[in-house]
Design goal:
The complex is a heterodimer of chains A (113) and B (116). Helices cover 0% and strands 51% of the residues of chain A. Chain A is mainly β. Classes of the chains: A mainly beta (113), B mainly beta (116).
Chain lengths: 113, 116
């Protein structure tokens, strides 16, 4: 069955370190998204991609970057981790088109100490 | 940018009781609306979606939602709640970003607790 996976599931890192969170989908979806989930804020969009070599900033993109070199993967990089980036991160993908729903990964819990 | 409001942060119901979770959106045209559920420690699972047509949509796990344009609402309902329905529920709307691309805007969520 097609799926979307994230790794690691849990990560503890120190302030200032670079961190990369992996997202891999086997749906062959064109669109991929990264969200962060914080209490009281629901899910907020960080970056998204509508295809290979396409990346776009979302609502809360400062301090994050993504790259899309193939259809299956959209890694999220925190250039210099900050305590404010302690959160749960979700990756999602969708087929495309205005009506297509998003499929979510299981999430990565990141703690920045 | 669109917005989605879920006025209830936390709701507690007894098992077997009916449930209604509220969702209000801001959008001028016909919105594309979703309800997702998140069980503890899990990702989000799609419950149902509305694009057009019949304003009462059926979803998985016995859930339904009604789109009311006059009230800008898309409330989620279930006639009889089961203990396994305890989770967090998110309403979302398709939004058009500054880039012209589409993405989802989520409400802040409603946490449902089910009492035995």
């Amino acid at each position: 069955d097609a799926e979307i996976t994230q790794s690691p599931r849990h990560k503890i890192t120190e302030t200032g370190r670079q961190v990369t969170l992996a997202c891999h989908q086997t749906w062959n979806h064109n669109n991929m998204f990264w969200y962060r989930q914080d209490l009281g804020h629901g899910l907020r969009l960080i970056h998204y991609s509508y295809g290979v070599q396409d990346t776009n900033k979302g609502e809360v993109s400062d301090g994050y970057s993504v790259s899309r070199s193939n259809t299956e993967d959209l890694p999220l990089t925190l250039e210099s981790a900050a305590s404010s980036q302690t959160s749960v991160y979700f990756c999602a993908s969708s087929e495309g088109g205005r009506r297509s729903e998003q499929y979510f990964g299981p999430g990565t819990r990141l703690t920045v100490t | 940018a669109q917005s989605v409001t879920q006025p209830d942060i936390h709701i507690t119901v007894s098992e077997g009781a009916s449930l209604e979770l509220r969702c209000n959106y801001s959008y001028g045209a016909t919105p594309y609306l979703f309800w997702y559920v998140q069980s503890p420690g899990q990702g989000l699972q799609l419950l149902l979606k509305y694009f057009s047509g019949d304003t009462l949509v059926q979803g998985i796990k016995g859930f339904e939602a009604e789109f009311k344009r006059s009230q800008s609402s898309f409330n989620l309902r279930k006639p009889s709640v089961h203990w396994s329905d305890a989770a967090e529920y998110f309403c979302a709307v398709v939004d058009i970003m500054d880039t012209g691309r589409r993405a989802l805007t989520f409400g802040s969520g409603t946490r449902l607790q089910v009492q035995p």
